[in-house]
């Protein structure tokens, strides 16, 4: 055996750990067993053993997972745990690392609970805006529970102690067993048929989850949601949560707590009334004292001691005001009259009619002058236009052609020289009154004529 084949204990444990964690069948499994040696460490982690009659396995559930548990595991409880298998290298022991756990025996009930809860939540039956306020001083309190249970005794005792003015109306119902849901639904409807019930308590005392299961029934939940009377759910103890608690307008931890929520404590209100009465008396006394002081001040005032003197002073002020008003009116009329006179004189001095006549004469004279100038300018323009027309007509080729001249074209080009055609070419002659097509028989150039003339002179 070679030395390199010998493993240390740590290497061996690490290898076993890797082998276990690579095994897919051990990474997501459910295990049923009884809890023993349960320890909830101060760090939040849970350590316990799952066992049955033949075997056991150590389990670790870290705080990051056990904070989602809906129940508190305890010694001897049976549970179903989901997790994976791995090894703890230090001790060389394999153990179960739990991620999820639920009590054994109610797994199907728990699943049904969650499914119904999700369904009703999606329908909006748990919405906060559906919750109604409880009446402050109910006259009649309806109770749906067992007539022989401890819950009705607790509710009656609490209500009579806190608010004996309220009447308790019991609608008996079976709160445990297969017949319980229908019985509870019937009792709720009976209470809603009575028009003078102010608040309704639906519940029962504590028990196992199977005993409380009637309050997780869908029909019961819908009956509570449809109730016209505000409903307080009071099922079991503080740790017991049912579908009825989510649907009800108010959830109470216990039947006694439900009774305390349903009615006020009359002694507290007696004390409130007494305090209000004290405050009201104090306020009335203060107001009366203040008003007396004010009355005393008014009685001792100058106006109240000689009221006729106040009237005389007021009459004197009125007379003086009347006199000032008359003087002001007279002064105002005088000023307006003077202003009117000045304006009248100014109008007469301006003689507006004469000024308008002069303006009209000037306007007529200006208009005549303008017409004469416009006519002269127009004649000048007409004469200039006629002269330009005569010039254009004199320069027009048509006028020249009328004097006997013609234009010769060959191939649609004006002929300006005999070099542009040759004997036999076809030419077009345009005259003033038409055109003619001709053919060139002979071309006579000016140079040939001149040379012919010179030769003749030389011979001579």
Structural features, described:
The chain is α/β, with parallel strands linked by helices. Helix content is 50%, strand content 20%. The chain has helices at 9-22, 63-66, 107-122, 150-162, 180-193, 218-226, 243-247, 255-262, 266-299, 302-305, 307-350, 352-395, 397-402, 446-459; strands at 29-40, 46-51, 56-61, 78-88, 93-103, 140-145, 167-172, 199-204, 231-235, 250-252, 407-410, 413-414, 426-431, 434-439. The strands form 3 sheets. The protein has a 5-stranded mixed barrel. α5 runs parallel beside α6.
Write a concise synopsis of the structure shown:
With 460 residues, the chain is of the alpha/beta class.
**Rg of Cα set:** 63 Å
Q: What order do the helices and strands follow?
A: HEEEHEEHEHEHEHEHEHHHHHHEEEEH
Number of H- or I-type helical stretches = 14
Give the end-to-end Cα distance, rounded to a whole number of Å. Answer: 156 Å
Pick out the low-confidence regions: none
Helix content: 40-55%
> What average pLDDT do the residues reach?
87
Biggest sheet architecture: 5 strands, mixed, barrel
Strand tally, please? 14
Key terms for this structure?
single chain, 460 residues, alpha/beta, flat
Strand and helix layout:
Elements: H1 9-22, E1 29-40, E2 46-51, E3 56-61, H2 63-66, E4 78-88, E5 93-103, H3 107-122, E6 140-145, H4 150-162, E7 167-172, H5 180-193, E8 199-204, H6 218-226, E9 231-235, H7 243-247, E10 250-252, H8 255-262, H9 266-299, H10 302-305, H11 307-350, H12 352-395, H13 397-402, E11 407-410, E12 413-414, E13 426-431, E14 434-439, H14 446-459
Parallel strand pairs: 3-5, 6-7, 6-8, 8-9, 9-10
Antiparallel strand pairs: 1-2, 1-4, 2-3, 4-5, 11-12, 11-13, 13-14
Helix pairs in contact: 4-8, 5-6
